[in-house]
Specification:
Shape: elongated
Oligomer: single chain
Distance between the termini: 57 Å
Largest sheet: none
Helix content: 10-25%
Number of strands: 0
Number of helices: 1
Radius of gyration: 17 Å
């Protein structure tokens, strides 16, 4: 029997963590962040 290597990315529709969250839920999460810019550190 031949062994076939399948990468886990073959099972994903997109890339990155956000592709696991439905668009409507992601929009609600991002809206709740407020104004953050590059280098924002929540603890200082």
């Amino acid at each position: 029997m031949a062994v076939r290597t399948v990468r886990l990315t073959a099972y994903a529709r997109g890339g990155g963590c956000a592709c696991k969250i439905p668009p409507g839920q992601l929009d609600a999460l991002v809206t709740g962040l407020g104004d953050v810019g590059p280098g924002f550190a929540p603890n200082g």
